[in-house]
Each structure stands twice: as C-alpha cells, then as structure tokens.
Amino acid sequence: MAYLVTGGAGFIGSHLCERLVKEGSEIICVDNFNDFYDPLIKRRNVEGLQKKANFKLYELDILDFPKLQAVFEQNDIDVIIHLAARAGVRPSIKEPLLYQEVNVRGTLNLLELARRFNVPKFVFASSSSVYGNNKKVPFSEQDNVDNPVSPYAATKKAGELLAYTYHHLYDISISCIRFFTVYGPRQRPDMAIHKFTKLIDQGKKVPIFGDGNSQRDYTYISDIIDGLCSAIEYCQGYEIYNLGDSRTVELKEVIQHIENLLNKKARLDFKPFQAGDVWITYADISKAKAQLKYQPKIMFEKGMQNFIDWYKSEGRNLSA
To answer: How are beta strands 55-59 and 79-82 bridged, if at all?
Structure first.
C-alpha cells in the first residue's frame, strides 16, 4: 500500500509516517516546511525517516497544483491522508485570507487529484474547533457546526463540506477526523502544553487568557495515531469521527502538572479571554469506538510525564 501524507513532517504527520513506515508501507510525504514555526524542527522530525527505503519526501506547497500533480504521476497512490494546513485559531484571525487559501484551496487541490488519479480513500484532518462554543457537551458528530468562531474553524468546516461533495460526485471514500488537542513528544511549540512548559522552565511569564478555568480534551499522540490508522483501514463511504480522550482538563490543572514535573513555579500573567477561543472542548467518541474500535489508552498524567521526559531530553534544545 502506498500512502500520500501531506504535512508529513509536522507533529502528527511525522508520528503517522513513522508508524506506517514501520509497518512496511510505502510513504510519500509532502511538506513545504513553512515558517509558522522553526522549519528545522520539522526537518528533524523526518531525519530518521529519510534513511528508510520506503519513505519519499517531496518538499512542495499543496497550493502548487502542477508540482502536486507530478507527485501523483510519479507514484501509484492508494490512500491520501491530508494533514497539511495552516494551523492555529488566533493567527487565523490576523491572516484569514492565507488560511482560506491554504486550508480550503489546498484541500480542494488534493480532492481534485484524488478524482483525477482514482485514489479510492481519502482521510482529512479536521478539528474540534468546528464545534465553536457548542453548549451541549460532550460534542457529537451529529451536532450542528454552523457557527465557527474563527476563520481556522470555518476553513475546517469548509474542508468537510468539500470532502462530502467529492464523495457524492465521484464515490471517493472519505473520513474526516476531528482532532481534540493532540499532545505528546514533538508537539508543536506554539501549542499550550509545549509553550507553557518552555516558559515555566525558563522562568518567564505564562500568559493565561481568561481565568484559567477553560477546559480541553487532551489526546495523546499515540492514541491519535491508533485512531488514524483505524480510520484508514475502515474508510468507507463518507464519515466524520471525533478522536479525543473524552475527558476534560482545566488549564490551571495543566499548569500544575507542568510545575510538578519540572519542579518549578509558574509566573502567571492573566489576560482577557481571546476572540476565537472556546471555553471547552469535549469529545463524544462513541462513534469512533463502535466503528473504528478506537480506545484511548494513555491517561493525561502518563501523557504529561512522557511529554516532559521528551522535553528534558530533546525539546529544551529546540527553537521556540
């Protein structure tokens, strides 16, 4: 089996590529190594993979249709796992046109190439952000998601809609995966757990937007990869799945865990709640359990220990 993984040098993408390469699959990785965060971090993520015979890396932008098409011409692709995106809720408010271009047009490019080259399976990385400030918890795939509160969330909903259109018109089997706050070794440096760990470790102020009582459904990276692999295997028709841990942790509790594991005290800097942020994310994972045999295994306490162990051995030396 040959898998095209876009965004394959990123946090989730590199972990997925490692799993699939280990299983003996042929991996075609596409990444443009943009400067949203230090590109050297992403290059390091795939450094070991580039030594494997069943791993190919194409450095290109998903907006470059001719170059992207050439990848399909050069490889017989069985499955597309589309993880590449412009990430982040707050940055999307500052640069909505960029987010629309990358996340909507980029996704459409991949769907169109799936059609042209008869790729039967397509797995799309969506986001829990599509639920917005949904008052019903936990969030179910059946909930209305017509009220996104950031351009990033809107682009992910748009991606789901385009995916359905291509399934309907061309009978491509597509699974849209709504990720809930993924963390673990190699987590992006802009994400809260990694960012706060670095600031606390360096004795710098930690910005807290709101009162610290906001809640997130934190999902450990190996559980996400298990879910993704199942989504690939069972991809049939058009489906949307939540992949989360299905329990919430308050921001203040996250900081306490980091303090305890680093044995350092945080200097908290409280700021107003930010536009585009949501108070809670909380996944109903009953559908993924039933249809994908998905079962999170790593409790938050263990996951945080694993992350801090990685941070102390490798993460400290990475750029912010």
So the answer is: unpaired
**Domain ranges, ordered by start, for the chain:** 2-187+218-246+282-297
* 55 close to 95: Cβ distance less than 8 angstroms: no
Amino acid type, 288: A
Instruction: List per-residue pLDDT tens for the chain, 320 residues long.
Output: 999 999 999 999 999 999 999 999 999 999 999 999 999 999 999 999 999 999 999 999 999 999 999 999 999 999 999 999 999 999 999 999 999 999 999 999 999 999 999 999 999 999 999 999 999 999 999 999 999 999 999 999 999 999 999 999 999 999 999 999 999 999 999 999 999 999 999 999 999 998 889 999 999 999 999 999 999 999 999 999 999 999 999 999 999 999 999 999 999 999 988 888 899 999 999 999 999 999 999 999 999 999 999 999 998 887 54
Q: Is 282 a catalytic residue?
A: no
Q: What is the pTM of this model?
A: 0.96
From 131, 152, 183, 294, the catalytic residue: 152
Rounded-to-integer distance, Cα 28 and Cα 3, Å? 6
**CATH class belonging to 2-187+218-246+282-297:** alpha beta
235 to 17, 96, 295: CA distances (angstroms): 18, 31, 17
Q: State how far the Cα of 284 lies from the Cα of 209, in Å rounded to an integer.
A: 26
Ordered alpha helix ranges (H), the chain: 11-22, 39-45, 65-74, 89-94, 96-100, 106-116, 151-170, 192-201, 221-233, 251-262, 286-292, 300-313
In the structure encoding, which two tokens stand for residue 129, read together?
């952000």
Residue 5 in tokens: 């993984």
